[in-house]
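Here is the promised in-class demo. Please do not try to memorize the tokens; focus on the logic of going from shape to residues.
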């Protein structure tokens, strides 16, 4: 009887030992993961400029107002062409028409209505060009048309780049390489090695003004006010390690 109990006890200990040994081996073979965020960034200069200006006129007679605006358009177009802007780079938008009304008040100072005073016509002119310096100069100097009776409002130019797809591909390559290098460094420090990439997720494309102090946006930022820009993108990468 004692021998039987001893045998059962020994078998139990052996079974428990084998179970613990198997559990330890399984836990030790289990693969881990390393998650990193790679960054790609590039500075570049815009190669397209877009500028807009607007002018207007007022007259109680619609026909005279249109004729005055037509003369203003011709003067503006001649001014731009004389300064090196190609006709194909100039676009005149449709004419906008509004009425100007004068408020009427009675002897007690109470508002009693309004009456027509004049038609106000306005038009916008736009330049799309790759000659950035020339258009920048025009945007600063064109208010001098006031000497010819044209009060033109000059907006700040906007700047774009013609091949953003190439920049995006460059950034994705940079961000992927940067993420892989970071993951390899972490693996070396933990005496492991990378087995392969399990997943990757691109962040949003960001374009900020160079050294502008602008903030990133969750939906992506697209700066158009700066000639020089910084584009960036992130990629979240998850590697299997052993």
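The designed amino acids, position by position:
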């Amino acid at each position: 009887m004692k021998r039987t109990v001893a045998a059962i006890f020994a078998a139990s200990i052996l079974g428990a030992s084998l179970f613990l040994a198997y559990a330890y081996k399984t836990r030790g073979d289990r693969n881990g993961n390393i998650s990193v965020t790679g960054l790609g960034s590039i500075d570049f200069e815009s190669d397209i400029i877009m500028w807009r200006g607007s002018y207007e006129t007022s007259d109680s007679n619609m026909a005279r107002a249109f004729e005055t605006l037509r003369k203003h358009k011709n003067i503006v177009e001649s001014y731009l062409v004389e300064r090196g802007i190609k006709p194909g780079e100039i676009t005149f938008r449709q004419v906008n028409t509004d009425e100007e009304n004068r408020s009427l008040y009675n002897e007690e100072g109470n508002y009693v209505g309004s009456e027509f005073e004049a038609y106000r016509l306005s038009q916008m002119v736009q330049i799309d060009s790759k000659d950035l310096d020339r258009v920048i100069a025009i945007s600063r100097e064109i208010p001098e048309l006031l000497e010819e009776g044209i009060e033109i409002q000059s907006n700040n130019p906007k700047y774009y780049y013609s091949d953003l797809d190439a920049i995006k591909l460059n950034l994705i390559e940079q961000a992927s390489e940067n993420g892989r290098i970071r993951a390899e460094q972490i693996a070396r420090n933990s005496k492991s090695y990378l087995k392969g990439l399990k997943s990757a997720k691109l962040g949003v494309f960001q374009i900020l003004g160079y050294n502008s102090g602008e903030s990133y946006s969750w939906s992506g930022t697209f700066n158009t006010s700066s000639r020089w820009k910084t584009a960036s993108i992130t990629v979240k990468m998850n590697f299997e390690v052993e």
